[in-house]
Amino acid sequence: MQQRRENESVSDDLRTFVLPGATEHYAPDRPVRTEHVRIEVALDFKSKSVSGTCTTTLHAVRQVRAVTFDAVEMDVERVTVDGKRAGYSNSGRQIHIQLPTPLGDGDRAKVAIRYRCQPVRGLYFWGPDKGYRDRPVQAWTQGQDEDSRAWFPCLDAPSQRATTEVVATFPAKMTALSNGALVENRVKGSQRTMHYRLDFPHPAYLVTLVVGEFEEERARAGDTQLRYLFPKGRREDAERCVGRTPEMIRLLEEKTGQKYPYGSYSQVFVTDFIFGGMENTSATTLTDSVLHDARAHQDYTAETLVSHELTHQWFGDLLTCREWPHGWLNEGFATYGEVLWKERAEGSDETDLYRGVLLDAYLQEVREHYARPILARKFHLPVDLFDRHLYQKGALVLHELRRRLGDELFFRALRHYVSTHRAQSVETVDLARAIETATGHNVDRMFNQYVFSAGHPDIKVEVRYEAHEQRLRIKVQQRQKTAAPDGFPVFAFPLPLRVVLSGGKFSEHTFEVSELEHIYFVAAEKEPEQVVIDPRREILGTLEVDKPVDYWLRELKGAREARARSEAATALGKIGSAKAVAALQKALLNDVFWGTQAAAARALGKTRTPAAKDGLLGATWLPHPKARRAVVSALGEFKRDRDVAEALRRICEKGDKSYFVEGEAGRSLGKLRVDSSLPVLQKMLSRRSFMEVVAAGAVDGMAESLIPKAYSIVEPLTRYGQPVFLRRAAVIAVAKLAEPAQKKTEAVELIGELLRDPLFRIQYAAIEAARELGDRRMVSALEGTPFLDGRAKRAAREAIRALREEEPKAKQIAGLQEEVDRLKEDTRAMRERLERIEARPKAKRTAPSVRLGR
Q1: Among residues 413, 432, 450, which one ends one of the domains?
Q2: Based on the number of CB atoms within 10 Å of its own CB, is 477 exposed (0-12), middle (13-18) or buried (19 or more)?
Q3: What is the average pLDDT value for the chain, to the nearest integer?
Q4: Contact by Cβ (8 Å): 613, 641
Q5: pLDDT single digits (tens) 565-580
Q6: How would residue 835 be classed by pLDDT, with cut points 50, 70 and 90?
Q7: CA geometry: angle at 180 spanning 174 and 186, to 5°?
Q8: Residue 170, strand partner residues
Q9: Which residues contact 533 (CB under 8 A, 6 or more apart)?
Q10: 3-state secondary structure 718-759
């Protein structure tokens, strides 16, 4: 398959993904293959160190005299090969071993490395300290992408697959989880040793070890034994998160045609995990921050996370990307697993909405950061690739495939792909060829456009009814600005359309778009009631539809798909007429799907008219908490409005059944910029809630208020020991409030200190805050911080680029936004008055009276 280079230029209005100093990356040579890895380690929680022996069985594919293991900052005590001492050198990054006897093609050897280390990556020790006295004592690993080398010596590449054993010794009161089946669990004195074995080959980054004190629950999914490990006292909360795992397994077995491969599946919740979850083979690690109570469950579910990591057991573990540039074959599939589960568990309306969330996330990355090919080779570290292109766009590419092939052929191709490459390393071409073999469809063109090239189609559709010709005229334009060597890239894709006539009759059409501009015609004796473009909003790209307002009005009221009704609501919000606002008010109160109610609320907020305000104020009672939250959020658009401020104040003070609505009320109250908001928001800070959404909403509100006094309130909340999610909000708030409070120098110093915080999430928030602050003095602090996490390194590089090139200018432009908002409000008010005048009945004309003389 022809592949376009990832470093092709893009237009000036898009940032490049490739940062200075990046290099091209390819899979390493494989003169030896790993067959089996046995890791025997003792964990010392006091010194936060690991000691032990790692024995790797190797199989040579050509003659080799030396073998190099990845090993970061390890003190090597001894190396043997088949029991014989071997010479070695240790660079601190790799251990280079001279084989006592060269290996020939097909020869095997056991290389045993005895070592000690105090890992700063890969394996993490946690316990109580003066800031967080209730933190549990735990140790857990996180190997993706190349961090397993920090706690055991290995050939750390996704293409190296081996069966594994982990034999761990630790304090007897604890328990351990690792890959595969528990072989032995013995206690000797104050120490416990647990031995796990997995007889299924998998890469080093998927090897796991978790040690701590947990409660446990067991279940089954057919022949698969399930284990759930969670903090003491959180059984019900854990059940809310993982209780539907058996149904998810059945779904994935059905869709892939492959039974769950590993016999047992465990999920463990750990403290301060640096990701949401990690799909270690047969033993997923999840952050305990997703554990939630019944009140939070109204708004929140961890099922997307749980289904994502479970999908990885097939895509990522059973089939593993050969090298990280092809990582979308892991992450794109796992993210699409979330979509498949939504579809099964919650239906098409929720699924369409969720795909919209994925699309918006990808498009935001393009707007605010960069556009890149999904398959890119030029980067600093592999973790640079773990972004919204790899996850969200990767999933949307799979959905694009599905809508083109249809369900029957798509899932047939999926099953063929899985069965053909089971227990193997895969590249993108393997997926393309599996699709072609199973369905006869060649997808090279699509992959070249959506996977090997940056960008997406930017589509404008114009709909007009030509009464004299008795036909609809549909004009389709591609407007994307991603440049290619030969000019505009032109995407080829199907564009679905539904035409609804009076009486409910309808016809479905699909236009095959392949040029920059098309004009299509659809016969229609009478003007249709609705002309719905892409009813489920499935196209991977942006879509603007220009059609008469009456179509939008009828589609908001009667379109079959909730996504189409929501699109109509958004369009009517941009129109903002009295008729549009009235229709949005009805949809807000009466639509059967909360997502459309939320879209109507957002649209009303954007119009900022008095009628829209009244409609929103009259809908704060909506029964669905997510719709209610959207209403409260939309009220934040009515700056300085006293009526709105009073309504939000009541919610902030009295609370709401939903944590999220309550937090959103605090955020919106701050956006109003009324002086009386600060005491109300300050009182909310002491309310504990799931992920601190109430207090964090109040902090966000303080930041939005731009009240100088708010700085001294939020600054102490950034300190170590405060709840982590509250700290994150406070760090960003400090950056937003620094200028109105005339505290920029203090903010620069504080954020510079937080860049070195022990918690990764606070470091990351500090990087974001540095960019938000827009002060070039942050560049030296960012450059001088030795970040250990690759994600932080990437974010810091992007922040440095933004601060040097554009952020200060953007800050100056942002300073004009307040005045622009005032002008918009005045314009809308004038339009409202004009519409009221035009709506008045016109007086009948009479002849002028003439006064006659006598």
Answers
A1: 450
A2: middle
A3: 93
A4: yes
A5: 999 999 999 999 999 9
A6: low
A7: 40
A8: 192
A9: 461, 463, 495, 496, 497, 543, 545
A10: HCECECHHHHHHHHHHHHHHCCCCCCHHHHHHHHHHHCCCCC
Q: Where are the beta strands (DSSP E) in 485-605?
A: 493-500, 506-513, 517-523, 530-533, 542-546
**394, 418, 450 - which closes a domain:** 450
> What's the confidence (pLDDT) of residue 489?
80
Q: Which of 156-170, 284-298, 638-652, 832-846 has the lowest mean pLDDT?
A: 832-846
According to DSSP, the residues that pair with 378 across neighbouring strands are 24
Q: Is residue 162 part of a domain?
A: no
Report yes or no: 377 and 8 within 8 Å, Cβ to Cβ.
no
Peptide bond into 550 cis (omega under 30): no
Nearest Cα to 500, choosing from 533, 521, 529, 463?
529
CA distance 236 to 530: 47
| Sign of the alpha-carbon torsion through 141, 325, 483, 458 | negative
In angstroms, the first-to-last Cα distance of the chain is 102
C-alpha–C-alpha distance, residues 82 and 99, integer Å: 10
Q: What is the tally of helices (H) and strands (E) in the chain?
A: 28, 31
Q: Does the pTM of the predicted model rise above 0.70?
A: yes
Task: Indicate whether 826 pLDDT > 90.
Answer: no
Q: What is the CA radius of gyration of the chain?
A: 30
Cα–Cα distance measured from residue 686 to residue 523, given in angstroms and rounded to the nearest whole number: 64
Strands in 75-81's sheet, in edge-to-edge order, are 84-85, 75-81, 108-117, 49-60, 32-44, 162-171, 191-202, 181-188
Instruction: Count how many residues are written for the chain.
Output: 854
Rounded to whole angstroms, the Cα distance separating 396 from 136 reads 39
Residue 349 lies in a domain: yes
At 218, the pLDDT band (50, 70, 90 cuts) reads: very high
Of 369, 365, 357, nearest to 389 by C-alpha is: 365
Q: Give CA–CA dist 156/46, Å, rounded.
A: 28
Q: pLDDT category, 504, cuts 50, 70, 90?
A: confident
C-alpha–C-alpha distance, residues 633 and 317, integer Å:
41
Number of domain units in the chain: 2
For residue 409, what are its two tokens?
A: 């052929």
pLDDT bracket for residue 824 (50, 70, 90): low
Domain extent for 430 = 324-450
C-alpha 802: how far from chain center: 22
- Whether residue 410 is contained in a domain is answered as yes
- Give the residue among 366, 328, 333, 429 at the shortest CA–CA distance from 3: 429
Contacts of 650 (CB under 8 A, 6+ apart): none
Establish if 413 belongs to a structural domain.
yes
